[in-house]
Write a structure and sequence with these properties.
502 residues, 5 domains, five-stranded mixed sheet, 23% strand
Length: 502
């Protein structure tokens, strides 16, 4: 009997030990399987399954320990969460890459007021990302949040917040960004523009830079502030590149029924301060060109062509340019578009205006030939008048020369007369002087001696040659007679020689 009880006791002890071992092993297994390790780049999302009670109606996350997904997340490290009571899901941290922003959608929270689309922006975003604070003390709103996440890594309860990456609002060089806000105070505006921060199209655009805006709450429209050149022609000009917009030529109809194409090149620009007006009234760059500029250009050119004949249109290209430019400037300025230039290229082609232009060309040639003939006639008349004038000038020249020659001859005659009179007077005076001198000498030395002196002067000057033919037989009168004879003979010889030379 004792042995039986002893065996029974041993069996109970073994069973107890086995039970304890099983319980211990089970506990160890439960503890082992309930230990959760959250790595440094992870977040633990906890869901409670038992002993928490039900969530209030309409709630998604538990803040006060109710069953369901818990607002509190597990930070990196070791945590014990009983497997039978909790499920833990490990997820990677939420990352917003450079050049992007994170748009936030909350699955739980207070309901947004009527008419409100986005929850107000949080001044302290880090508090907002704490789900317990957001759903508790922070009184966060359910739905899309106006706050956005900057580039970085975040520990977020993804059961509460859904994050969608969107590009930052990047305003590049040569553009501005016009913002249409879907949030803010709603105001009435006649020109459709509102102050920055109000609901509607802001009256001031964003300039060059990067902006972290909620891309759905703030709709952005880029507008180029560079010059835009539009060519309504089939031919591309050399150097046309950036900002060049090729379009079909404009077809117009003239007053006299001719239909022909007109090549038009236009340059316009949207100034920065006018960009909001352009967006509010027209739209983006593509709509400005397609819905505003091109229709205006076509309408104005067609209306102007209807007022004149085709030939007049061709001949008055500059007038059409000036008129169209003025009208386009006035029309497009209403929408904030500044027209810089309008140029007309080719007008018509062989098919549309070939015959008309040929007729005009033939007419112009005929007129030119007629004008040339008339000009030649005028030139011939002028040449005739010129020849006549030259002849008259030559006759006048010859007459003047003859008159001058007569005057010169008359003057020469008068000069010779005066010279002869002067010589005669000189001879007379000289003769009278010599006669008087001779008379004086004769009175003193006697006539013969005076004559002898004169003869000796002639001999001295070489005017009388004395030869041995003269024989001096004595002094006095005989000698004088001999000398006088020699003088007379010399004079006769000179006269004879003079007669032979003639």
């Amino acid at each position: 009997m004792d042995d039986t009880w002893e065996r029974i006791s041993i069996s109970k002890a073994k069973a107890t030990l086995i039970l304890v071992a099983v319980v211990l092993i089970t506990f160890i297994v439960l503890v082992a399987t309930s230990i959760v390790k959250i790595d440094g780049d992870e977040v633990g999302i906890v869901e409670k399954k038992l002993f928490g009670g039900s969530l209030p109606e309409g709630k998604v996350l538990a803040v006060n320990g109710e069953n369901g997904v818990q607002a509190q997340i597990l930070a990196p490290g070791w945590h014990v969460k009983w497997k039978w009571q909790y499920d833990v899901t490990r997820i990677k941290m939420t990352e917003i890459k450079t050049g992007s922003v994170g748009l936030i959608q909350a699955a739980d929270g207070q309901s947004l007021p009527a008419g409100v689309i986005y929850a107000p922006e949080w001044k302290e975003p880090e508090k907002m990302l704490n789900a317990e604070y957001f759903l508790g003390q922070g009184k966060g709103y359910k739905g899309p949040q106006l706050s956005v996440l900057s580039p970085g890594r975040y520990r977020i309860n993804t059961k509460l917040f859904t994050i969608t990456a969107a590009p930052v609002t990047n305003v590049t060089v040569g553009t501005v960004m016009v913002i249409k806000s879907n949030v803010g105070e709603a105001v009435d505006s006649e020109d459709r523009l509102v102050e920055v921060g109000q609901k509607g199209v802001w009256n001031k655009p964003l300039t060059e830079g990067k902006y972290r805006l909620h891309t759905e709450a703030y709709e952005s429209t880029p507008i180029s502030i560079r010059q835009v050149k539009v060519s309504y022609t089939t031919e591309k000009e050399q150097g046309e590149g950036r900002g060049y917009q090729p379009m079909k030529p404009i077809t117009v109809r003239s007053k006299d029924g001719f239909t022909f194409p007109v090549d038009v090149r236009m340059t316009y620009k949207i100034n920065s301060e006018n960009a909001p007006q352009v967006v509010a009234t027209v739209g983006d760059d593509a709509l400005v060109l397609a819905k505003l500029v091109t229709p205006a250009v076509r309408a104005i050119f067609r209306n102007n062509a209807e007022k004149v004949k085709a030939l007049e249109y061709v001949q008055n290209r500059s007038k059409q340019e000036s008129q169209s430019t003025s009208m386009l400037k006035e029309e497009l300025a209403k929408y904030g578009v500044n027209v810089l230039a309008v140029r007309i290229g080719d007008i018509g082609d062989e098919k549309s205006l070939g015959l008309l232009l040929k007729t005009q060309t033939d007419r112009e040639i005929a007129l030119q030939e007629q004008a040339t003939f008339e000009e030649q006639q005028r030139a011939a008349e002028k040449q005739k008048e010129l020849t006549k004038t030259k002849q008259e000038a030559e006759e006048e020249k010859r007459l003047a020369t003859a008159q001058y020659s007569v005057q010169v001859a008359e003057q020469d005659k008068q000069k010779r007369i005066i010279d002869a009179q002067a010589n005669a007077e000189q001879i007379r005076v000289t003769a009278e002087a010599k006669a008087l001198a001779y008379k004086k000498i004769s009175e003193v030395i006697g006539p013969d001696n005076a004559a002898l002196i004169e003869i000796m002067k002639l001999v001295e000057t070489g005017r009388i040659r004395i030869t041995p033919e003269v024989m001096v037989g004595g002094a006095g009168a005989g000698m004088t007679d001999a000398l006088m004879g020699t003088v007379l003979r010399g004079m006769l010889d000179k006269e004879a020689a003079s007669g032979k030379n003639k």
